[in-house]
Design brief:
single chain, alpha+beta, globular
Length: 93
């Protein structure tokens, strides 16, 4: 299993319950094929440019271990989740 870091930018209009639901959804998904080490909620930040007509975004950082084959599925779920505006998954050394 490899170590990864994933940063997602979530719609800033979500309430606390919505953000918690997103966190639980992706933590559960990652734990199916690996192990979440930490989740850091950075909070609302101003974006460099508008994404989906939003000038701000709520940042979340997931540090986890996973099988390389599970990353494609995680990215697919990021892509089809309406409240996720942007995402990136990086393999750590």
């Amino acid at each position: 299993m490899n170590k990864y870091e994933s940063v997602i930018i979530v719609n800033p209009n979500l309430d606390e319950a919505g953000i918690k639901a997103i966190e639980e959804k992706f933590t559960g998904l990652i734990n199916e094929n690996g192990k979440v080490e930490s989740v850091e909620k950075v909070g609302k930040r101003k974006l460099a440019y508008e994404i989906k007509k939003q000038a701000e975004g709520f940042y979340m950082i997931f540090n986890f271990e996973s099988k390389p084959t599970a990353i494609a599925e995680l990215e697919r779920i990021y892509r089809i989740t309406d409240d996720v505006m942007k995402y990136i998954v990086i393999k750590k050394d």
